[in-house]
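Form 7-S
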Amino acid sequence: MIVGPCAAENPTQMETVAGELKPVLQVVAASVEPVFRAGLWKPRSMPSSFQGVGAEGLPWLTRAAATIGCPAATEVAQPEHLTAAYEAGIRHFWIGARTTSNPFMVEALAAVPLADKQSVTWYIKNPTSPDVELWCGAVERLRGAGYSRLRAIHRGFALGEHTTSAYRNAPVWSVAIEFKRRNPSLPLLTDASHIAGHAERVAEVAEQAIRMGMDGLMIEVHHNPAEALSDAGQQLTPRALHELLQRVAQIPAAAEAQAGAELSALRQQMDETDDELWALLGKRMEISRRIGEYKRQHGLPVLQQARYDQLLRRRMQWATEHGIQPQAAKQLMDLIHEQSVLAQV
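Output:
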């Protein structure tokens, strides 16, 4: 459980947050391994945004973590960040999505000569795009540099117009699941705050993550979110975190109680339905090839946008009526249409 403010702002803020978090985390001490987080160097899109206090905040962070009695963690994006934080006694670091997306920067961080690499824990956030290879590559670069205490963080993806408006970053759980399949021994946490983007939806995302089998959570917590200098809208109060922990604490026991023959039967039905779905997709592609042949014989263009727009409107309407996100239906139709066009060329 990695909790704490988005950014360290001043000594008083850090002391206050830590003081209010301590009793909350003590209640769940038997089942949660806490780490206190705060960003010191903030990679913001616009230079006019709050960029963080930098190395000045290192003693604030370490003192706050000591108040709770847990390790301190911060984001590092450049070698000098890592060196300064390590020399201040911090041993937990996360690599942000923008840095994971840049193999050169990951390589530079991995190459920093630290005295005791075995004492360092790395948390690697997924890249901004849903690229599981890029994510795995960052892990391998750190592993190849001699680090063994590696964790990953699923924080959702920036998909632009393709994302759903419900969240700040699209979860795309399939990418997280694929990453976990490729790295079964690597703990995978979910950054519920950055996926949700809104405080009122953080608990919802956290619950989804636990039900998906994620190994932990990263959640931003501020004693007064309304006055936070960054990401004010998605930070919880310590009290709200307490309520969230109570909510998700019941999930593993409930999930275990429901497992068994009924679950196996439902999974079997899903497998059979998937078989039917893929058979239908294969049939659709065969029809696409026949359409392509007809168009070639009659000199017709492959791409007929008006026809596709009509199909898309109908499928998105169907999705709305059946409780499926229209944008998800659009993504699916775009993929199917792309393959159909390629089959006709």
